[in-house]
Amino acid sequence: VHPNVSQGCQGGCATCSDYNGCLSCKPRLFFVLERIGMKQIGVCLSSCPSGYYGTRYPDINKCAKCKADCDTCFTRNFCTKCKSGFYLYSGKCLEKCPDGLEANNHTMECTSIVHCETSEWSPWSPCMKKGKTCGFKRGNEVRVREIIQHPSARGNPCPATTESRKCIVQRKRCQKEGKGKKNREEKRKKSNKDESKETRQESKGRAARRQNREQRENNNKTQPKKRKAPNKEQDLAPTDTAH
Predict the structure, then answer these.
(1) CATH number at residue 35
(2) Is 224 contained in some domain?
(3) Which of 3, 64, 90, 91 is the most exposed place for a label (fewest CB within 10 A)?
(4) Is residue 162 part of a domain?
């Protein structure tokens, strides 16, 4: 064993040096060199730090550095996140997105351009003026539509979602609110009155029928029962005579 190699290593090191840190790592850990000033120190990590990607070999697992414009990468030629000022597209970091794509400053990626989409127009509303549908000859009617898909930064903007046009209606007077309310009240009172009258008539009819029934029962009690008339045919039948 080299005199500079220590066997009592810590921090995941299999072998280490007092001057250079870890020289090899325990199984499944990644070996990476960290620069401190002019000096490089070997360390063993469970995953590679930002700007590095991991490679596994039979004898050692290493962390290799990503390309200069990559913040994180899967391999050296496939970035998963770009550094500031670059946009990610198909694993590469670009200063400008290709034609047909736009730069998303939130995700720092090149994404497809999205245009605005709207629904179909609704039917025209009734002809109105100042919120009323009566008391005028010329008014306006309105139709609306909804936004289904909002556009991206470079997408086509949304058109107007409301349209209005002039309309003509046959002039008619507005019914006064007080008069309408009075008519409704009178109709309600008349309906209640008719219902009360019908109820009283039904009550009188039931009382009369009950009185007639009681009277018939009393008459049946006071009159004597009629005797059953003799059978004339029996009275006139011949009797047997001894000869």
Answers:
(1) 2.10.220.10
(2) no
(3) 3
(4) yes
List, for residues 135-158, the tens digit of each pLDDT value.
788 889 999 999 999 998 889 999
Residue 98 is encoded by which pair of tokens?
Answer: 């290709």
- Does residue 126 belong to any structural domain of this protein? yes
Name which of 163, 161, 159 is nearest 115 in CA terms: 159
Residue 152 to residue 47: CA distance in whole angstroms: 37
Task: Flag whether pLDDT at 188 surpasses 80.
Answer: no
Would you state the structure tokens that stand for residue 41, as one six-digit string? 């120190």
CB atoms within 10 A of CB 84: 7
pLDDT digits (tens, 9 = 90+) for 66-119: 999 999 999 888 999 999 999 999 999 999 999 889 999 888 999 999 999 999
8 Å CB contact between 165 and 127: no
Domain coverage including residue 27: 7-65
> How many Cβ atoms from other residues are within 10 Å of residue 202's Cβ?
10
- Token readout for 133 is 């549908």
pTM here?
Answer: 0.47
Q: How many domains does one find in the chain?
A: 2
CA of residue 211 relative to chain centroid, distance: 68
In a domain, 29, yes or no: yes
